[in-house]
């Protein structure tokens, strides 16, 4: 056995151990989602004495999960997509066209990272614009809130895309929009996808924004449903766990799909060689 | 090349407008409230301007708000160290050819998608002294002497919070590092290999400098996250046992719940100032390094 | 490849899960849509109809309207579901029930009231002082129900939590079961030859004997953060007894928590039990998630709980053991924890259809609805209402316990409901109590903090007694 194989085995053992640590709580949630209410409260790792698959159907019905799922999907996809593209455009210009003014704008936007959200004033602003109780309002809020994060992240990667690419494209007769969408966006893929995943997850799990901005339960996202199963004296742990599993699945899928693009974004380095 | 033409300024208009109207403006308005006596009674008495009174109250109050500030700073420092360094090595490990790296990547990221409520419930159970998974596992491994009252021992509780926070956050940090690592051309490493460089050389002279972008991102996000930390503390201990783990945001939350909105806004404003100062420092230092390279 | 398979299988499983629920989900969506279109049509015809015939409140008046309800998780549970469905059916309206996470509820409510976007019906956890401190300006925010026919459905003690300056605003339908008294495993006590402790020293003794068997004598879920302080507040009668007139004095700022000897005594006793390990080895780090199983497994013998918890233990665990109730003997207490507090419904003054809201309150107060609510409450055995024809489901254990009480020791309200601003600092006090048990704080400092907090609340409320 040479050193390399020993190293590889060591690495594998490390990864497997870490995976166990990561997965154990998930396993706990998953296995308990198939138990009865009081058995689930024990949160043991043992298999259920009786498999309660009906927990899932009941959660979907009682929690109105279909409606919540559609809302969450709409908010997360549209807000994140619009937010990331807009931010990429802004970051691109802010990075390429350096001027005193643009640098100021950059830092001005970055400041947003530090600000706490104030829901009361936010609701006031939305009221004056008649945007409360609408899906559009909720989407706009989410898209706006991710701007500092995305501009900051994306700009740090635009730096690494060589300017020669732009020049070549312009010589080929591309306009600014064609240049951005055909040349720059593909090069920024790993970053854009990373931003998309992280922000999608953020929007998906944020239930406070829709809660403050709407007074209609049909606008509530999927993550709200779980709270119906908490009671003051007794909680339906089986339902809570089943609900969590269902709520997590979409984000896992987005990550699985996105991960491929993060990894395949290798081409961005190609030009530098 | 005509910069005006290929990098049109109008690309900025829409994002900037959204940002100002729907994010910055309401937030700034919120900060303004910190100079008022805004409270649950405001609807009866009307809003009054009180200058710096709320701030003076915070720093002179008998309640240990200062401890909250100290705890916040400590959390920021420690939580970032225990997340960023392991995440960096994990990302490098998974970037290299290791079998099943795709699965590992996915699994390590999983914890960051769990809602905090659930993290709280699950870890309160895992960390339970008598029936918790952790103490049971320690006993099973004949390590019974390591058993702890994870969430109530005053010497242990912060470590438990750091542990749970790292459990949740490492995958997130790692994902950003992975995006950064992918932007480094393989040829750099190949060239270094030929020169006989070892792992540490490659790390020091290729990986770290080329990754300055993602390191900065992680630092800035990590610091802002750390300073604004609320959920992980709230769901695990809610500032307890006693007031051992109170941070700025848990105090702000309590003040708000008690109807002292002005005080709560002032608490948030203090947090804003601290975050702003530290954040600007980090960005400045990092961009100076960027220029040097 | 593996990833794809995983992604695919996840997709499939999710779709399958979604589809199974679709049957109900889709019809529901269709229904709301139908209602929405109906709404428009209805409104138009309604205007015309109203002009022609001024019929007295027929049910058709409201059809197509939507009644929204804002409530914290756990206050309505599922026990209103059937009644709400019947309300929808009777009036042809829809009910939009918004269940908010408990820890966010008060912030959400304040924001909604403040910005004028509140639901038609909202709830607060009320006590005789809560309208002033939580809603603050009931005249502005609440529908005035004074003189409503359901007024006398509530007993006088409940009405105090629903009125402010002689106007009736709220409706409190809550049970009158013993709340948070000591619940114990009767069978276990009998097997061990123990009798119910009546004084603190007996309690200490009993705990010692139970602990010797390797059983946690008194399960205290300290990690919940809101339960352990019950053992201090629920015995308000004993403080009043030790210092007659204490409540009034506390409400007029003539007495303080600090330096109250009885209170210090109770806190010290609590710490002694904690130090002895009678609450379990790590009560501060344990929450109530598994409490009913702990009882079922005989891992613990006593806990502070509602009488209905007996039902829950039996349902959850199928245990054969019998359970009973007794009065918490800290400070040698002999008083029953009377608590005229509970989640209370209010009508929002800015509602677009106040008549529908009023109709809803009327509807809830019918015998039929009340019976339905009671029968659908897994956790409640009775409703504290004055109405003939309602069939209560009292437990044998409750009747036994209530029958054993000294009638002269039922009248004093618990400390958190009998004194102003106290309940607002429930969590703070709990945290301080833990600090005290961990030796980080003195008992009197715990009480002093309560005084400071109450003074602050009084200042916010503009209370003249504190000026």
Summarize, please.
The complex is a heterotrimer of chains A (273), B (293) and C (467). Chain A has 273 residues and is an all-alpha fold.
List the helices and strands and how they pair.
The complex is a heterotrimer of chains A (273), B (293) and C (467).
Chain A: H1 3-32, H2 37-41, H3 54-62, H4 65-96, H5 100-110, H6 119-128, H7 135-145, H8 147-158, H9 163-171, H10 176-187, H11 189-205, H12 208-213, H13 237-264
Chain B: H1 3-6, H2 13-32, H3 42-45, H4 53-60, H5 65-95, H6 101-109, H7 116-126, H8 133-140, H9 157-182, H10 186-194, H11 199-210, H12 212-227, H13 231-236, H14 248-257, H15 261-292
Helix pairs in contact in B: 4-15, 5-9, 5-12, 5-14, 6-9, 9-12, 12-15, 14-15
Chain C: H1 2-52, E1 66-72, H2 81-91, E2 94-100, H3 102-115, E3 121-126, H4 130-135, H5 138-141, H6 156-159, E4 163-164, E5 167-168, E6 170-171, E7 181-185, H7 186-191, H8 200-212, E8 216-219, H9 230-233, H10 236-242, H11 246-251, H12 261-275, H13 291-296, E9 300-305, H14 309-317, E10 323-326, E11 342-347, H15 354-364, H16 367-375, H17 396-403, H18 415-418, H19 426-437, H20 443-461
Parallel strand pairs in C: 1-2, 1-3, 8-9
Antiparallel strand pairs in C: 3-11, 4-5, 6-11, 7-9, 7-10
Helix pairs in contact in C: 19-20
Q: Explain this structure to me?
A:
The complex is a heterotrimer of chains A (273), B (293) and C (467). Chain A is mainly alpha-helical. Chain A has one domain (59-272): MetI-like fold, CATH 1.10.3720.10. Chain A has 13 helices and no strands. The longest helix of chain A is centred in the N-terminal third of the chain and has 32 residues, at 65-96. By secondary structure, chain B is an all-alpha fold. Chain B has a single domain, classed as MetI-like fold (Orthogonal Bundle). Helices cover 70% and strands 0% of the residues of chain B. Chain B contains 15 helices and no strands. In chain B, helix 4 packs across helix 15, helix 5 (65-95) packs across helix 9 and helix 6 (101-109) crosses helix 9 (157-182). Chain B is flat. The mean pLDDT of chain B is 87. Chain C has 467 residues and is of the alpha/beta class. Chain C folds into two domains: 61-176 and 340-395, 3-Layer(aba) Sandwich (D-Maltodextrin-Binding Protein, domain 2), CATH 3.40.190; 181-335 and 421-466, 3-Layer(aba) Sandwich (D-Maltodextrin-Binding Protein, domain 2). Helix content of chain C is 47%, strand content 11%. Chain C has a five-stranded mixed sheet. Chain C has a four-stranded mixed sheet with strand order 8-9-7-10. In chain C, strands 4-5 form a two-stranded antiparallel sheet. In chain C, helix 19 (426-437) packs antiparallel against helix 20. The relative contact order of chain C is 0.15. Residues 10-57 of chain C have low confidence and may be disordered.
């Amino acid at each position: 056995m040479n050193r390399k194989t020993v190293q590889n085995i060591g690495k594998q053992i490390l990864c497997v151990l870490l995976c166990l640590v990561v997965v154990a709580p998930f396993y706990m949630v998953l296995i308990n989602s198939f138990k009865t209410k009081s058995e689930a409260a024990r949160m043991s790792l043992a298999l259920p004495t009786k498999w309660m698959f009906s927990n899932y159907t009941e959660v979907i019905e009682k929690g109105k999960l279909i409606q919540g799922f559609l809302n969450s999907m709409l908010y997360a996809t549209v807000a994140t997509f619009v937010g990331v593209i807009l931010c990429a455009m802004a970051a691109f210009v802010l990075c390429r066209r350096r001027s005193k003014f643009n640098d100021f704008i950059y830092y001005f936007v970055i400041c947003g990272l530090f600000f706490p959200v104030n829901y009361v004033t936010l609701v006031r602003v939305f009221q004056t614009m008649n945007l409360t109780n609408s899906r559009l309002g909720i989407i706009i809020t989410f898209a706006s809130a991710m701007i500092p994060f995305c501009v900051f992240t994306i700009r740090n990667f635009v730096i690494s895309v060589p300017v020669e690419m732009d020049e070549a494209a312009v010589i080929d007769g591309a306009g600014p929009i064609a240049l951005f969408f055909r040349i720059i966006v593909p090069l920024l893929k790993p970053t854009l996808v990373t931003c998309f995943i992280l922000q999608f997850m953020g929007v998906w799990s944020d239930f406070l924004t829709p809660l403050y901005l709407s007074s209609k339960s049909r606008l509530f996202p999927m993550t709200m449903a779980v709270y119906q199963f908490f009671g003051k004296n007794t909680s339906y742990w089986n339902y809570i766990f089943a609900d969590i599993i269902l709520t997590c699945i979409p984000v896992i899928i987005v990550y699985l799909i996105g991960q491929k693009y993060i990894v395949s974004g290798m081409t961005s380095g190609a030009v530098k060689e | 090349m005509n910069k005006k033409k290929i990098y049109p300024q109008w690309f900025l208009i829409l994002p900037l407008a959204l940002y100002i109207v729907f994010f910055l403006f309401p937030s700034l308005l919120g900060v303004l409230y910190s100079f008022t006596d805004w409270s649950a009674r405001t609807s009866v008495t009307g809003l009054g301007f009180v200058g710096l009174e709320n701030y003076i109250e915070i720093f002179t109050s008998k309640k240990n708000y200062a401890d909250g500030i100290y705890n916040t700073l400590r959390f920021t420092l420690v939580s970032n160290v225990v997340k960023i360094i392991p995440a960096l090595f994990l990302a490098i490990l998974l970037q290299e050819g290791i079998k099943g790296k795709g699965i590992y990547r996915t699994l390590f990221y999983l914890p960051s998608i769990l809602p905090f409520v659930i993290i709280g419930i699950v870890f309160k159970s895992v960390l339970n002294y008598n029936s918790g998974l952790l103490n049971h596992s320690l006993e099973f491994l004949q390590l019974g002497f390591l058993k702890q009252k994870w969430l109530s021992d005053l010497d242990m509780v912060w470590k438990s919070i750091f542990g749970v926070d790292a459990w949740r956050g490492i995958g997130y940090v790692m994902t950003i590092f992975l995006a950064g690592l992918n932007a480094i051309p393989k040829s750099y490493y190949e060239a270094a290999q030929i020169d006989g460089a070892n792992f540490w050389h490659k790390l020091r002279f290729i990986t770290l400098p080329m990754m300055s972008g993602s390191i900065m991102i992680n630092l800035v996000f990590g610091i802002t996250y750390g300073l604004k930390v609320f959920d992980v503390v709230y769901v695990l201990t809610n500032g307890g046992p006693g007031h051992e783990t109170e941070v700025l945001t848990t105090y702000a939350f309590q003040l708000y719940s008690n109807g002292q909105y002005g005080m709560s806004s002032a608490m948030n404003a203090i947090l804003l100032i601290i975050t702003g100062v530290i954040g600007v420092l980090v960005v400045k230092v990092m961009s100076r390094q960027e220029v040097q390279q | 490849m593996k990833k794809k398979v995983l992604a695919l299988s996840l997709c499939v499983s999710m779709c399958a899960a979604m589809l199974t629920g679709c049957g109900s989900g889709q019809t529901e969506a269709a229904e709301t849509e139908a209602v929405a279109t109906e709404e428009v049509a209805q409104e138009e015809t309604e205007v015309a109809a109203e002009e022609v015939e001024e019929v007295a409140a027929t049910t058709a008046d409201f059809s197509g309207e939507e009644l929204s309800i804002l409530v914290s998780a756990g206050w309505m549970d599922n026990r209103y579901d059937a009644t709400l469905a019947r309300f929808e059916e009777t009036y042809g309206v829809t009910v939009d029930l918004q269940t908010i996470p408990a820890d966010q509820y008060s912030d959400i409510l304040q924001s909604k009231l403040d910005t004028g976007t509140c639901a038609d019906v909202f709830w607060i956890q009320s006590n005789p002082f809560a309208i002033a401190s939580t809603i603050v300006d009931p005249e502005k925010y609440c529908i005035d129900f004074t003189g409503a026919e359901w007024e006398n459905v509530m007993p006088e003690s409940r009405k105090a939590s629903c009125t402010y300056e002689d106007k009736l605003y709220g409706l409190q339908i809550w049970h009158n079961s013993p709340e948070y008294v000591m619940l114990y495993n009767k069978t276990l006590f009998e097997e061990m030859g123990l009798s119910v402790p009546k004084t603190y020293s007996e309690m200490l003794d009993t705990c010692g004997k139970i602990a010797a068997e390797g059983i946690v004598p008194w399960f205290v879920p300290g990690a919940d953060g809101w339960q352990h302080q019950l053992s201090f507040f629920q015995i308000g009668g004993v403080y009043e007894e030790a210092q007659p007139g204490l409540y009034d004095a506390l409400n007029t700022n003539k007495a303080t928590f600090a330096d109250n000897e009885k209170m210090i005594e109770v806190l010290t006793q609590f710490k002694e039990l904690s130090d002895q390990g009678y609450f379990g080895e790590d009560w501060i780090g344990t929450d109530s998630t598994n409490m009913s199983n702990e009882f079922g497994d005989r891992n613990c013998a006593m806990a502070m709980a509602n009488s209905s918890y007996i039902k829950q233990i039996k349902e959850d665990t199928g245990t054969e053991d019998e359970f009973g109730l007794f009065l918490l003997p800290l400070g040698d207490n002999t008083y029953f924890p009377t608590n005229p507090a509970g989640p209370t419904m209010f009508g929002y003054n800015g509602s677009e259809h106040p008549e529908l809201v009023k109709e809803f309150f009327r509807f809830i107060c019918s015998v039929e609805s009340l019976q339905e609510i009671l029968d659908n409450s897994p956790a409640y055995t009775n409703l504290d209402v004055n109405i003939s024809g309602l069939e209560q489901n009292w437990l044998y254990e409750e009747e036994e316990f209530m029958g054993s009480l000294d009638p002269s020791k039922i009248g004093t309200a618990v400390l958190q409901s009998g004194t102003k601003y106290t309940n607002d600092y429930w969590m703070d006090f709990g945290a301080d109590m833990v600090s005290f048990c961990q030796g980080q704080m003195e008992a009197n400092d715990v009480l002093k903090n309560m005084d400071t907090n109450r003074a602050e609340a009084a200042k916010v409320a503009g209370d003249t007694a504190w000026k």
